[in-house]
Amino acid sequence: MPLLGKMRVLPLLLLFLWEAQSHSAPPRPNIVLVMADDLGIGDPGCYGNRTLRTPNIDRLAKEGAKLTQHLAASPLCTPSRAAFMTGRYPVRSGMASWYRAGVFVFTAASGGLPPSEITFARLLKNQGYSTALIGKWHLGMNCYNKTDFCHHPLHHGFDYFYGLTMTNLRDCKPGEGTVFTMAFKKLVFIPLQILGITVLTLAVLNCLGLLRVPHTVFFCLLVLAGIILVVFLCFLHYFRPLNCFLMRNYEITQQPMSYDNLTQRLTSEAVHFIRRSTERPFMLFLSYLHVHTAHFSNRDFAGKSRHGKYGDAAEEMDWSVGQILNVLEELRLADNTLVYFTSDHGAHVEEVNIKGEVHGGSNGIYKGGKANNWEGGIRVPGVLRWPGVIRAGQVIHAPTSNMDIFPTVAKLAGSPLPEDRIIDGRDLMPLLQGKSQRSDHEFLFHYCNAYLNAVRWHPPNSTAIWKAFFFTPKFTPEGANGCFSTHVCFCFGKFVTHHDPPLLFDISKDPRERNPLTPATEPRFHEILKVMQAAADEHTRSLPEVPNQLSLGNQLWKPWLQLCCHSSGLSCQCDREKYDARVSR
């Protein structure tokens, strides 16, 4: 080709390449998902708190978008996290209980997130992302033996795991009380009292000659009492080491776990993961133990807040969020990283320690809290930042769900959604980028464990947001804002009040849920309920029959599933932690 011809072709080639580049897909972002445990929507400063210091969470809201009606798919840890990981209502995967206990309390339980479920971690890993979970899992560990790890994070798409497979509990920290008070009363103290009264009564009758009681009867009753007492003492002695331990991938690193500098250690692990993942896209799920009881914080935060141990823990968590933001900026990754902050559900308003100190957080103006579907139990912080993509300072009032993260990050990573199952979440990006003013959720369904508790309806071309309750928990004592007599609200039987017709609210006008509507106050009352009932029926028909992962059999402790860092007996005492002090305040 003559030189002149080549010179004419070259500009055309450059123009073609420029056009192709301008129309190509934007680079896939890094994903940082941050989840607090039991944090109320009224706790962060960006949601109105003026006495709890959360400058780093507030900074995310200022530099990104704040969701004011962001909803947990369940008001309890395990089912909410299952929904978050899979983008599906937890009842679809069997991760919702029909019984009182709605979460796992033993690491050696056989239930957990089924291997057949697809998490966003698995989708992103298949797209070449480096994936890590730092902190709390609470979705099970083993199925049939202590080495199958069928529910473990590494079997659900994570390349790296450091943290707890269960959860933080008062029983994990000496001197902080127990979550088993009611169980101890019913299974230990009352039976021992009955046995004691029985033995005393039989002895008196025997002495008076009114009834001849063989010695074997006394012996059997005393043996039974002794067995109950020994089992109780063994439980108190072994629960902490057998259930409260840290793991790195499949290896136990600290059993029982120490709370010393625990948040600093989790933060260090998260920072190091980011530093070693700069060569390809990464997804970090940082799942804090804060602010679930037992509360803890290191000396830099202990006693520094205006809200006691709860406030100390919340402010330490905010510091940790700041460390993550700092390393993203240091490595010049901030502009290509989507950061999301939320809580797994509302604050636990009934959380009071043995000294009578309130250890729960704030749900702001909203009624109820953890374990119920009043707005205080399911409306959670939802903050997203992605500089240059999500406009800074946005406030979005449309109903959204924590299930929406699944399709959102899947699409950003270039992954198609699974076609063999229903995905209940919706992509948030059109809403976050201002391409849509409405959420794709017309209906949302609120579950109390496995029971359909309420329906939310945001009709097209309407500002109304209707919420209908089929039943509500009985708060105790009367007039309280929670179920203080049972520590959490339950979902069936004598613990609830059923409503026929359902209790109807317009959340857009009555977010505090104080004034239920009636045919006299809402002319379309019956029409609205008819539409919502039809939606609930259609939704119910879409639910498959699946094994219940939170059945009593799956929740029970099984010795053959118990992990222990020593093979001899149940001593289970080890500390292989090497705290890296490179992350400092």
From TrEMBL:
<dbReference type="InterPro" id="IPR050738">
    <property type="entry name" value="Sulfatase"/>
</dbReference>
<dbReference type="InterPro" id="IPR017850">
    <property type="entry name" value="Alkaline_phosphatase_core_sf"/>
</dbReference>
<keyword id="KW-0732">Signal</keyword>
<dbReference type="GO" id="GO:0004065">
    <property type="term" value="F:arylsulfatase activity"/>
</dbReference>
<keyword id="KW-0479">Metal-binding</keyword>
<dbReference type="Pfam" id="PF14707">
    <property type="entry name" value="Sulfatase_C"/>
</dbReference>
<feature type="transmembrane region" description="Helical">
    <location>
        <begin position="188"/>
        <end position="211"/>
    </location>
</feature>
<feature type="domain" description="Sulfatase N-terminal">
    <location>
        <begin position="29"/>
        <end position="414"/>
    </location>
</feature>
<dbReference type="Pfam" id="PF00884">
    <property type="entry name" value="Sulfatase"/>
</dbReference>
<keyword id="KW-0472">Membrane</keyword>
<keyword id="KW-0378">Hydrolase</keyword>
<keyword id="KW-0812">Transmembrane</keyword>
<feature type="signal peptide">
    <location>
        <begin position="1"/>
        <end position="24"/>
    </location>
</feature>
<keyword id="KW-0106">Calcium</keyword>
<comment type="similarity">
    <text>Belongs to the sulfatase family.</text>
</comment>
<keyword id="KW-1133">Transmembrane helix</keyword>
<dbReference type="GO" id="GO:0046872">
    <property type="term" value="F:metal ion binding"/>
</dbReference>
<feature type="transmembrane region" description="Helical">
    <location>
        <begin position="218"/>
        <end position="239"/>
    </location>
</feature>
<dbReference type="InterPro" id="IPR000917">
    <property type="entry name" value="Sulfatase_N"/>
</dbReference>
<dbReference type="InterPro" id="IPR024607">
    <property type="entry name" value="Sulfatase_CS"/>
</dbReference>
<protein>
    <submittedName>
        <fullName>Steroid sulfatase</fullName>
    </submittedName>
</protein>
<dbReference type="GO" id="GO:0005783">
    <property type="term" value="C:endoplasmic reticulum"/>
</dbReference>
